[in-house]
Every structure is written in structure tokens, then in C-alpha cells.
Specification:
Blueprint lengths: L1 E7 L4 H16 L5 E7 L11 E2 H9 L2 H17 L11 E2 L3 H12 L3 H13 L8 H10 L4 H8 L5 H13 L7 E4 L3 E4 L4 H13 L1
Parallel strand pairs: 1-2
Antiparallel strand pairs: 1-5, 3-4, 5-6
Helix pairs in contact: 1-9, 4-5, 6-7
Length: 209
């Protein structure tokens, strides 16, 4: 197997789109050689622990309502092209994603990392759920087969907070400044939500080697 390391944040719309495009490419190449591993990158590392009102966040980041629409129009178009139905008006809070990244890490220890990432994307972008909320994360973790009581105890502790923070810093130290970001075979970097065809070409080239 060849490693495909993916740096991502579950509140990043381009990460969701990039995953959808990658998934389509992988489905068309069922014998692909990739061992996929997800790594944390927080778009808003300084976000308050409880998150903040979505409208306030968008206003601070982009400006007035017209500016917000202009910023998200490419996202909406790309999502539709990738077969994703986003429900952006349903999102009422922008969360701190540290606990979501901890949950992804714990899911990875049980071989359920990609499933956990998928559930988090859908919960946030298609259901408007607050993925910074502990009760929500417990429900989502349980839905992929994680032990609810164990996850509750872990979330209530400082377990792996330092690990996630260090991994995020290490990613930035390597020059990663935005996500999604992909590293193939620990050598080749691919930035951004690449097209399905690009990923098919990558898979074919890696397979040929």
C-alpha cells in the first residue's frame, strides 16, 4: 500500500468537496493502492472553545451579506458539481474543531477514521449540526461504532489535546498553509480540491510505478 496523507478540517467546505472528488476517483479505481490517513489542521485555531455565531463569523471574515454570497458562490457551484447538496443556511455556529479532530484521531485507532471524517462533513455541511458540541460528537462517534461511554470520558478529559495541537503546528512548519492538502507516498504534495480526473491520473501513475 502507498500512503495518502490528507490534511483537513471538518469545517472546511473545500475539504468536503475535495474528499467527494477523491472518493469518485477511488470508486472508479477499486484496486487503488492508497492507505488513507487523515491529519488535523484547524482553519480557526484561535476560535473560542464554544465556537461563535455563524453570521457573526461570516461577517467578520468576509464583510456584508453580498461579500459573503460572493465568497461562497464558487463553493456552492463546486459542491453541486461534486454531487454534494450543502445546506449552508442550516449552519448556525462556527465551532472550534479541536474536539472533532480528537474524535477523528480516536476513530483512526479503531480503523474508522475515514468514516468519521465523512460523518463530520455531512453533519456540519448538510445537517447544520454543531460539531463542537460534545453531545453531538458523542452521537456521531457512536454512529460509526465507537464506544459512547469511552468517548464521553475522553472528551471530558485533556486526552490527546496536545497531540492534535502539535500535529497542527507541525503541518504549518512543513509549509502547509491551507487545506485540503495531500501528500502521496510521503513525497509528492498536492494542494487543493483537485478534480476527479486529476486523481485518476495520480492513481494510474502511482499504480504504474
Amino acid at each position: 500500500m502507498i500512503t495518502l496523507d490528507i490534511y483537513s478540517d471538518p469545517v472546511c467546505p473545500w475539504c468536503f468537496i475535495g474528499k467527494a472528488r477523491l472518493d469518485r476517483a477511488l470508486e472508479s479505481r477499486p484496486d487503488h493502492p492508497f492507505d488513507i490517513r487523515w491529519h488535523p489542521f484547524q482553519l480557526n485555531p484561535d476560535m473560542p472553545a464554544g465556537g461563535m455565531d455563524r453570521n457573526e463569523y461570516m461577517s467578520l471574515k468576509f464583510g456584508d451579506a453580498d461579500a459573503v454570497l460572493d465568497a461562497y458562490r464558487p463553493v456552492i457551484d463546486a459542491a453541486q458539481g461534486a454531487g454534494l447538496a450543502l445546506d449552508l443556511p442550516a449552519i448556525t455556529r462556527t465551532p472550534n474543531t479541536l474536539d472533532a479532530h480528537r474524535l477523528i484521531h480516536w476513530a483512526g485507532l479503531e480503523g474508522r477514521q475515514t468514516a468519521m471524517v465523512s460523518i463530520l462533513f455531512r453533519a456540519y455541511f448538510q445537517q447544520g449540526r454543531d460539531i463542537g458540541d460534545a453531545a453531538t460528537l458523542l452521537d456521531l462517534g457512536q454512529s460509526v461504532g465507537l464506544d459512547r461511554n469511552l468517548i464521553a470520558r475522553l472528551l471530558d478529559s485533556d486526552a490527546d489535546r496536545a497531540l492534535i495541537a502539535t500535529a497542527d503546528r507541525d503541518a504549518r512548519a512543513r509549509g502547509i498553509s491551507g487545506v485540503p492538502f495531500f501528500i502521496v507516498a510521503q513525497q509528492y504534495a498536492i494542494s487543493g480540491a483537485q478534480t476527479v480526473e486529476t486523481w485518476r491520473n495520480v492513481i494510474d501513475e502511482v499504480g504504474a510505478r
